Amino acid sequence: MRSWHRGFTLVEVLVALAVLAIALAAIMRTMAQAIDTTAALREHDVALWVAQNRLAEHMMRQDWPGVDTTNGDVEMGGQKWFWREQVAATQEPKMRRIEITIRRTADSKDSSATLVGYLLNTQ
To answer: Could you read off the pLDDT tens digit of each residue along the chain, which spans 123 residues?
Structure first.
């Protein structure tokens, strides 16, 4: 009596490998997107910390800045950040509105974070 050992054909193996390659490519793409998202979130968080630090400095010094726009830079998280503060008057004479915008480069049009706060003149 003859016994037949039947295995996979070459076409079946190639189809299985193609399906596996497609699945692995999709997984790699998803992983790359997750890494990009994580990096963008980290950048946004650090930029927001820079803005919060600027506002906290004004509050601690009890500054009363004039209505103006100022620029500067600071290092945080091993990177250089560029900030722009736009101070505006409010309807309340003892309050100033301050908008702090953080960018990665000085000439960038896109901001990494923006924070709006208010300063009170206690004097």
So the answer is: 566 667 888 899 999 999 999 999 999 999 999 999 999 999 999 999 999 999 999 999 998 889 999 999 999 988 999 999 999 999 999 999 999 999 998 888 888 899 999 999 887
What type of residue sits at position 79? Q
Alpha-carbon dihedral angle through residues 56, 60, 62, 68, given to the nearest 10 degrees: -30
CATH superfamily, domain at 10-120: GSPII I/J protein-like (3.30.1300.30)
* CA distances (Å), origin 55, targets 12, 18, 35, 64: 65, 56, 31, 12
Question: What are the boundaries of each domain within the chain?
Answer: 10-120
Phi, psi of 9 (to 5 degrees): -80, 165
Which amino acid type is present at position 59? M
